[in-house]
UniProtKB/TrEMBL annotation:
<dbReference type="Pfam" id="PF08487">
    <property type="entry name" value="VIT"/>
</dbReference>
<feature type="signal peptide">
    <location>
        <begin position="1"/>
        <end position="27"/>
    </location>
</feature>
<keyword id="KW-0732">Signal</keyword>
<dbReference type="InterPro" id="IPR050934">
    <property type="entry name" value="ITIH"/>
</dbReference>
<feature type="domain" description="VIT">
    <location>
        <begin position="46"/>
        <end position="175"/>
    </location>
</feature>
<dbReference type="InterPro" id="IPR013694">
    <property type="entry name" value="VIT"/>
</dbReference>
<protein>
    <submittedName>
        <fullName>Inter-alpha-trypsin inhibitor heavy chain H3</fullName>
    </submittedName>
</protein>
<dbReference type="InterPro" id="IPR036465">
    <property type="entry name" value="vWFA_dom_sf"/>
</dbReference>
Length: 319
């Protein structure tokens, strides 16, 4: 437990936003010790790993990973919760990594270690950057958000856990779903990197306009895992769940490799029988959803540009 009382975690955002702020400037998250733990911490999933791999037996165990996604009127609220245990007789460093859509914004990140809760706070970019550099130089726990590809951002943080102790990570992010190619898509990147005692993905969708169809698939689904995707669809509500056991996660009988590695994707669309679309009014604000189905296709001109400037020299031009 030594060193935990003074723990401070700063999460600096590089590039454009995973945090939604009222001002257009970039921002950061700072984690500090909270003397009063929040009463409500429902949640979902996270991916963890230990830095040292020299031990023959894993001393850091990922006990649970849960992804809990709630969608209401095309707005997705996702909570990722994970619990890791340090079974060694000395402190260990544990990594928490999650990839989330670039269009999403983080609304909360917290850690619970031995009954103490450390909660994130939004800071202005320049001030947060100085705190981040100070934290790194003094050897304190620090984390950041950075690009991970065209569609994803990677959130990562590490923390040192005392012997025979555990840590709970809770990450919450939100996203306004965009309709593309006639459907809405929820993409959940799952990479636990090891077998998990309790693994679950649960999504609840509610659309007042009504649901026309709902589909769930994953890049890692085999013939054995496919029946584990349970889907219940009603007029305006749908629930999708996926909860494999430890044995069902294994790549092969007796091995420690996991099949859970890839994207879990939920696609759906709403009922669009009304020609005027759907208008929702809440607290004096309104939103109008419409997607006219019979508009003529608009002619398009496609222009290809080949950049041969100095900045493209070397490997870029060869590609």
């Amino acid at each position: 437990m030594s060193g935990l009382l003074g723990i401070r975690l700063l999460l600096l955002l590089w590039g454009c936003g995973c945090l939604w702020l009222t001002s257009p400037t970039s921002a950061a998250l700072v984690i500090f010790e909270d003397t009063e733990a929040p009463e409500e911490m429902t949640g979902s999933a996270t991916w963890l790993q230990k830095r040292s791999t020299n031990e023959t037996m894993p001393q850091v165990e990922v006990h649970s990973v849960t992804v809990d996604c709630t969608v209401t009127s095309r707005f997705a609220h996702t909570v990722i919760t994970s619990v890791a245990l340090n079974r060694a007789n000395s402190s260990k460093e544990i990594f928490f990594e999650v990839e989330l859509p670039k269009s999403a914004f983080i609304t909360n990140f917290s850690m619970e270690i031995e009954g103490k809760v450390y909660v994130g706070e939004v800071k202005e970019k320049e001030k947060a950057k100085k705190q981040y550099e100070k934290a790194v130089s003094s050897g304190q726990t620090a984390g950041l958000v950075k690009a991970s590809g065209r569609k994803m951002e990677k959130f990562s943080v590490s923390v040192s856990i005392a012997a025979e102790s555990n840590v709970t990570f809770i990450l919450t992010y939100e996203e306004l779903l965009q309709r593309k190619l006639g459907q809405y898509e929820i993409q959940i990147r799952v990479k636990p990197k090891s077998l998990v005692q309790q693994f679950r993905i649960l999504a609840n969708i509610y659309e007042p306009q009504g649901l026309s169809y709902v589909d769930a698939q994953a890049t890692f689904l085999s013939n054995e895992l496919l029946p584990l995707v349970e889907k219940t669809v009603m007029d305006k509500k749908a629930q999708i769940s996926f909860s494999p056991t430890v044995e069902q996660q294994r790549k092969c009988p007796g091995c420690d490799g996991t099949l859970i590695d890839g994207d879990f994707i939920i696609k759906y669309d709403v009922d669009r029988q009304g020609s005027l679309g759907d208008i929702q009014i809440v607290n004096g604000y309104f939103v109008h959803f419409f997607a006219p189905p019979d508009l003529p296709r608009v002619p398009k001109n496609v222009v290809f540009v080949i950049d041969r400037s100095g900045s493209m020299s070397g490997r870029k031009m060869a590609q």
